[in-house]
Design a protein that fits this description.
heterodimer; A: mainly alpha; Fumarate Reductase Cytochrome B subunit; Fumarate Reductase Iron-sulfur Protein, Chain B, domain 2; 16 helices; 59% helix; B: alpha/beta; Rossmann fold; 2 domains; four-stranded parallel sheet; 43% helix; globular
Chain lengths: 434, 263
């Protein structure tokens, strides 16, 4: 019987890891739908940014309440998962509390995890309250309808259930330990679950063992389910926040990259000696689909947890315009997912004829003031402006789709060297009036 | 100040066999926009007052290409940039100061990869430097105790991390700086960046400049100070909209300094 449980455990673990690996590989290939870009300069600075922003949560605490509770969940998640290691060893070897040989360190750790579990529980309840009772506006933007809000809710509820299962498991376990049940060696400390033993103390030992096994299995199956749910969810940020901050844009946020293919074209016109005659003329300018983005932009999209801090800082959104930087990121991810699926079915060269512009309208793109408030607000350095800007370039350069005022402005710059219709010879007239 | 100032151009200096220590890049707004011209003139008076050897390009200056680039027209941007870089390099310009954070950002960050490498500073940085070096001193403290708020432009602040220089100028003027809630890294855009200055805003429920101006007025400041010709225009329009023109002034930091020095 015991071996059967172990075999089932190993099989379950294997299946869960297999599906997790498969989905992660798919996400990786979706990210690589983007254009190649080498980002590996200033390595020391990159490690620093990752340590500060992802590990140290420096930008989360800019908003102190959400920041504080997020740190509780974050620390709880990381530390409590150390216990998963023990669960896996126990599951494979058929042991119980295999790490208890660590003695008092083990006991302190188990006690500490219980306290963390309670704190995580409280934080999840607070987060649910912020969404559904206080109704913080950024959780109720149009792009949050449907799956986005369901996803957020599911995750919070799963976390609550997992924490409760952990505490109940410990409560039953300590009862079994105190009754000297076979296999249940005395280990751990239970500062929280000791108060839960009352629920179970009337049951006989064999029933309790069943309970303990049920909670134990529930806990590990819950974790394995969670692991496989995360890649389908906005909660991928728990892994991707780290690479995403490492690959952060380190240049000043006001610096918008110059397109080298255009530099070559301009050189051919102005100074052919500087141009590379072998550079093929570009097929297209700007961003039409996710394949025209950098892979880093798609990594940004998969890292986004839809917190909406960007949108709540966006001057266009604040004043009622359609633009929402969060929606730009969600659309980018949805499109990468869609295109990835289509390519799976029809081969990598296939294109479904759709584009990112089907999801993000020109009205949204035009509303951006390129102020970079969204980039500043993002707790993990996601950059929606690059995507918006690239799509604007496509609209302007490929479609000549722009407001007539911009067409006029461009005309003026071309003919009068200023965005307004003044004569360039009058440019220094002011200097005669001092 | 009755003294006539003649503003030298780089080509005039060259004719005399001279070169400016610093080029004043005036920018399109500073050259043509009536409101921004006042800032240009105030800044020139300060340059003249401290005796810096400066010059302008005059009619050889051309739009940096910033609004074209932000509107998606990379082609036009690079045409402008290359032409400007050719002019600047021909005159062997090494240091540039500009009163416009958009020109500042573009020349500083986007020209180098096209062959334009210069030390570029914003006029608020130069003013702070002059104050620090004791070349600009304020005796009478004309702004003592006056409430002034400061609006961070996106392209000087977030885009380039310059938050302190403008504030140090206000400190030197002995003004009482009252910050808006959204300031420094969290400063709210005036609504003009990204070539928005040159088109109508998209459909919404409020204009961005009004949202920002309301916040500035709510500080109780009698002066809203700024560092950008577009911000100045947008906020001035906001003040007009709020019908506070007689109570609240919108001034560039160069104008405040020129006022304090009675220039």
């Amino acid at each position: 019987m015991q071996y059967i449980e172990q075999i089932i455990f190993v099989l379950t673990l294997g299946v869960a890891l297999y599906f997790f690996y498969k989905k992660i590989s798919k996400i990786r290939s979706n990210i690589l739908l983007g254009k190649d870009e080498i980002i590996n300069d200033q390595k020391a600075e990159r490690w620093k940014v990752m340590a500060k922003v992802a590990l140290g949560q420096s930008k989360m605490v800019v908003r102190p309440i959400a920041g504080f509770f997020h740190i509780l969940i974050y620390i709880g998640f990381v530390l409590i998962n150390i216990e998963v290691l023990e669960i896996i060893i126990d599951g494979v070897a058929g042991t119980h509390r295999s790490l208890s040989f660590l003695g008092s360190i083990y006991n302190i750790a188990i006690g500490f995890f219980e306290i963390l579990a309670v704190l995580v529980l409280i934080a999840c309840v607070v987060f649910l309250a912020r969404r559904f009772i206080i109704k913080i506006p950024r959780f109720h933007s149009p792009e949050m309808k449907g799956w986005a809000t369901q996803d957020a809710t599911y995750i919070l509820i799963i976390e609550i259930i997992l924490m409760v299962a952990l505490l109940k498991m410990n409560a039953v376990d300590q009862l079994l330990q105190s009754r000297g049940a076979d296999h249940y060696l005395a280990a751990g400390s239970f500062p929280v679950s000791q108060f839960l033993t009352g629920f179970f103390s009337s049951y006989d030992t064999s029933t309790l063992i069943v309970f303990e096994r049920v909670f134990w299995w529930f806990h590990i199956l819950g974790i394995l389910f969670f692991m496989n749910y995360v890649p389908y969810s906005k909660h991928l940020h728990i892994f991707l926040a780290f690479p995403n901050t490492w690959y952060s844009r380190l240049k000043p946020s006001g610096e918008f990259g110059n397109m080298p293919e255009i530099t070559n074209e301009v050189n051919l016109m102005l100074d052919p000696s500087k141009a590379d005659p072998n550079m093929p003329p570009p097929e297209k300018f700007g961003v039409n689909d996710v394949t025209d983005l950098s892979w880093k932009n798609i990594l940004d999209a998969y890292s986004c947890t839809e917190c909406g801090r960007c949108t709540s800082a966006c001057p266009a959104n604040i004043t009622g315009k359609k633009l929402s930087p969060r929606k730009v990121m969600m659309d980018t991810r949805d499109r990468a997912e869609e295109l990835g699926k289509v390519k799976d079915q029809n081969g990598t060269d296939y294109h479904d004829g759709k584009s990112l512009h089907d999801l993000i309208s020109q009205e949204e793109l035009l509303a951006c003031t390129t102020c970079n408030a969204c980039v500043e607000a993002c707790p993990i350095n996601i950059n929606p402006v690059e995507i918006i800007f690239g799509m604007r370039q496509y609209q302007t350069l490929e479609k000549s789709a722009m407001p007539s005022e911009w067409a006029m402005m461009n005309n003026n710059i071309e003919n009068n060297q200023a965005p307004w219709q003044f004569s360039p010879t009058d440019r220094a007239n002011w200097s005669k009036e001092i | 100040m009755s003294e006539q100032i003649s503003v030298p151009t780089v080509s005039e200096l060259l004719a005399k066999g001279e070169k400016p220590d610093i080029l004043f890049w005036v920018g399109c707004a500073g050259s043509f926009d009536e409101r921004a011209q006042k800032v240009t003139k105030a800044f020139v008076k300060i340059l003249h007052h401290v005796g810096l050897k400066y010059a302008i390009l005059g009619t050889e200056e051309s739009c940096t290409g910033d609004p074209a680039k932000r509107a998606g027209n990379e082609f036009l941007f690079q045409m402008q940039a290359m032409a400007n870089i050719a002019t600047l390099n021909a005159y062997k310009i090494s240091k540039i100061v500009t009163t416009c954070p958009h020109c500042f950002n573009t020349i500083k960050n986007e020209y180098p990869s096209l062959g334009g490498n210069y030390e570029v500073i914003h006029h608020t940085q130069l003013l702070q430097e002059l104050i620090d070096k004791g070349k600009l001193t304020f005796g009478e403290e004309p702004f003592k105790g006056r409430k002034i708020t400061y609006h961070d432009s996106c392209y000087l602040g977030r885009a380039n991390g310059v938050y302190d220089a403008p504030r140090k100028i206000l400190e030197a003027l002995d003004a009482e700086l009252v910050e808006m809630k959204r300031c420094r890294k969290n400063g709210l855009c005036c609504g003009a960046g990204g070539a928005q200055m040159f088109k109508d805003a998209e459909q919404g429920n409020k204009e961005i400049n009004i949202e920002r101006t309301e916040e500035a007025i709510d500080t109780g400041a009698e002066i809203i100070s700024a560092n950008c010709p577009f911000c100045t225009t947008m906020i001035k329009d906001g003040v007009k909209h709020a019908e506070k023109e007689d109570k609240v002034e919108v001034l560039d930091l160069a104008e405040l300094v020129a006022q304090a020095k009675d220039l």
